[in-house]
Amino acid sequence: MTTVETSRTSLEIASQPDTWRRAVASVHSYAEVLPRRGERVAVIGCGTSWFMALAYAQLRESGGHGETDAFAASEFPADRTYDRIIAITRSGTTTEVLDLLTRVKGTVATGAITADPTTPVMTAADAVAVLDFADEQSVVQTRFATTVLVLLRAHLEAEGALPAGVRPLADAIKDAERAVTEPLDPAVCGAEQFTFLGIGWTYGLALEAGLKMREAAGAWTEAYPAMEYRHGPISITGPGRVVWLFGAEPLGLADDIDGVGGIYTSASGVRAEALDPLADLIRAQRLAVHLAEARGYDPDRPRNLTRSVILTAAGA
After folding, report:
1. CB atoms within 10 A of CB 83
2. Distance between CA 217 and CA 287 in Å, rounded?
3. Under a CB-based contact definition with an 8 Å cutoff, are residues 69 and 43 in contact?
4. pLDDT band at 299 (very low <50, low <70, confident <90, very high)
5. Lowest-confidence pick of 59-63, 249-253, 305-309
């Protein structure tokens, strides 16, 4: 009998309920990093970290905690002023993030959230939150990214600034426990194309779901704000193609997808049993691994990717 090894990525995905609990329990340890109420804040990152920044910026601002922008580190606007800049960087070595923190050092308060306490970000930022318990061996980010967002959500929850309609994290963690074990829909697993949609803070999750599928499985994915879907992207939907919604369903969306023959999924696949959108992202992570393995790819060693993008000067 052949034993099929479980990928390291799958193990890390399955550990998320535990890392989320640890993030909630540790939130008060990172007061020097996290924004004060009323501060004007920019959150930066690259790739997955940028998408988590987008989700957090929407959560913080809509919860009334303060004006918040999110940028890819390479696109930070040099002429804007902020009270605080927060960098999300799993590796602590990403060139664009370190360059920005170095450039602004001494002119604005900076903080970083990382997984590795032995990297240059520890001195590049004024204060650092180290979530080493959520670090990963995998190249593709899963649990570190979601655990960072849980930490930031926990801070908003503790400050009474969680937006209306966003579940308490105690409930989100229960949803995560469901998401790591519930079977994936066979129709979704057999699809050829995936369009991810989100509203408000969940748009960042839609972008991240699409990225996970491309990174791990080389899948054909797109991501849009949900209300933009009918302004063109619906043209790609049809039989054998999925539309996956994170968060609340816009009026008539499901009927429009059904009308063009698409496969619609949201929450747990059963609309009456909706998952917290961040827990629903776990399902997309699991789907990415499933598709990778079905296509003969190794999810622990994705094509063309490394754990961190470290650039060297031309001619160096």
Report:
1. 15
2. 9
3. yes
4. confident
5. 305-309
